[in-house]
Design a protein that fits this description.
The complex is a heterodimer. Chain A is of the alpha+beta class. Chain A contains 14 helices and 21 strands. The longest helix of chain A is centred in the last third of the chain and has 18 residues. Chain A is globular, with a radius of gyration of 24 Å. Chain B has a domain of 227 residues: MetI-like fold, CATH 1.10.3720. Chain B has 15 helices and two strands. The chains are: A alpha+beta, B mainly alpha. The interface between A and B is large, with 58 and 60 residues.
Amino acid sequence: MFSVKSVVLTSALALSAVFTGWQAQAQQQGGGIVITTTPEPSLITNALSSAPTTAEIATKIFDGLLEYDMDLNPKPSLAESWEIGEDGKTVTFKLRAGVKWHDGAPFTSADVAFSLLKVVKDYHPRGKGNLGPVETIDTPDELTVVLNLAHPYVPLMKGLSSLEAPIVPRHIYENTDYRANPAVNAPIGTGPYRFVEWAKGSHIRLERNPAYWRAGLPYLDTLTFRFIADSATRAAGVESGEIDVATFGTINPVEMRRLEKTDGISIAYGGYEAIAPVMMLELNTAQAPFDKKEVRQAVAYALDRQRIIDTVWYGFGKPARGPISSFVKGAGAWTEEGVRDYTVADRLDIAKKLLDEAGYPAGADGKRFKIVHDVATFGEDWRRMGEVIRQQLGRIGIEVELRTRDYPTFVREVHNNYDFQMTSTWSIGMADPTLGVQRNTWTKTINKEVPFGNVSQYSNPEVDALWVAAQTEADPAKRNAHFHNLQRLLVEDSPIIWIMDMDLVAMQRDRVKDLITSPLGLRGGLYDVWVQP
Amino acid sequence: MWRANGKYVLGRILHGIPIILAIVIVNFFLIRLAPGDAAQVLAGEAGSATEEYMAQIRAQFGLDQPLWLQFLNYMKNLLVFDLGFSFRHNREIASLIIERLGATAILMITSMVLSIGFGILLGAIAAIRDRTFVSHVIVILAIITYATPLFWVGLMLIIVFALNLGWFPTSGMESIANPVTGFAWGLDVLHHLVLPAVALSFFYMALYTRLMRASMLETLGQDFIKTARAKGLGNSHIVMHHALRNAIIPVLTMAGVQVSGMLGGSVIIESVFGWPGLGLLAYEALFARDLNLLLGIFFLSSILVVVTNALVDVIYTMVDPRIRLTGGRHG
């Protein structure tokens, strides 16, 4: 099975090989690639939206203060260096000199202060999480930025990439209605690529930014994003060579396994360490039968995660041990020590016993009770996963009825009305659990107004205390201890059944080189991608 | 005759205005019955929204206003042909629709020409050569294409002609990787147009073939054809001058219906072939609950239906001079 380490290792090897000229392949300037993604975004300025396709495109146009290596350590980007104050309540960034916006205007500290405080913190859906404790920003000179925090906040340094906190031009946005500003669909950034055109319903074209501050980069002349609604057509496009890269989720797992065997096409692993998605079943803990811990645990025991991964997702993932994806292991937050293991040999017997104890004995026909499973409307594969779950829960006497609805109806009924019993979804954990994982089990995120929060309505003072402590704790070791305890508590209580640490893989033509060099994968800047002519 | 027709068309279109208004009103309230709103969809796509974010979006989209106020605003704007603003696309709806109209029009017109042309030809041959091998083959082919799902036809064409033979691109309307301009661009679009247009023609061609065959058979059995034969006219003369014009009326009626469904009818083909047309736009608008955009498209298609119906009536009179149009009085 693939691991983060091996990806880091191979990409490091590949890079050093290139730099030392040991390998015959050298980066080539020029050419372009076509990337297919879906759905077509509604806007392409990711300071105002965190929709996946918006992020995939905008991260090429904008830069963040920082970037990250595969172990999620910060690297310089618009900020050349940084220093965290003694008390952890100030962070000083020294900015890169000579950086220009795509329209030629100079980039300064005023842009950073404006972007973080006035745009990202208020308008990016994860802005409050990433920058919440940032109260004021000082700009003593044009190239210095000082962030003043209400309390120490370790996750801050994990959320300053162009994905989470893109720096936008103040001279374009200040004193305008941001979302109505024409620049949101023809953005001006400092990033490696400039916006050229958006042919609605067809494609968005970006071109090389010749004035990019990384001299000589990017290698590609053009980067084009194509929108194709049908998944079989996307696969055909990759097969025919009209499309060079297909982003995660745009090609069905079964098709990916077929295409993988084709000459000139391969699967691009890695590049989701900082996204850390986990697939899960959320249980409504506010009503019977899932208000009883024993019933939830019985479900956790009854599911054969490996089988779901193999039959539905064609091996693109590994069984989840808890809320935090094992793909962020490098940061030390993940553990399996002392975490209840639901994959033991006699798991079905344990599950049946738990249901007996909970007051749901098997009837004469072996059936105990019936539930409705609202299948996430993210595609056919989710329906198939529902069918496997129905079969597996049937073995311990739980009858499952599957319900599929169109996307807006699904969101309203499940995520806004909490009118459900069991629902499937996937949730991005982000580089730090406080930024992503927290929202699924924290009492404060039980909120009918905001979808994709704590829909299980799980509320446990002990868990809440740990989440809050982790938010303000400055010592990384102590924070990780909090996260380890959270995993033990949450997996024991199982308000959510964590199924799979997802491989957010992309599909690529082999002529595309060095596609994944960032823990954000295709949501990185793609400035070092090149093509073999 | 032309002046009479002109008056008739004008009358029909004037009669159409209250119909279009009624359609707009019904649509406005009907599509709001669908659960979920645009803010929820956007928040869902964001994956991690806050309450402030939801409130901002609702306020910006006007979703926080009472329904009657939203309705009054919509009708007021419609009177000056302002279709409103799509917040999802961050664009004026009128310009959004016009931009996509071209792609749909070229696809639909090509496929109509193909399907009507071949439909009439095959149907006529099947009727003239009734109960021969040729007619059996045509009838069976028509039944098969009529019963085959459109998306499957599309995918099969892609697999055979784009992937295996490599004759055509798999999708899109123009070359994205190596864009061209001018005359070469026109050829490039035509190259991309072949597969979707053929796929879309299949279904209607089958329909027209069957209609044409039945209508032709009936016509050929009528007395005036016998008279013509008795006069000693040649077979081809009879078919071309006597039978065809009479038999073609049902096909025209059906073609009128096809045009009316033009804006929405090609959703499947547009999505399979990644064709950037209006069908796809409407389809996405529905799932994103972009209701203003959806209303705009409905509004345009209702206008198209009214105008097309009037035009088809006029074409009847040109094909068959016995048909007279009687202005607005015919009820």
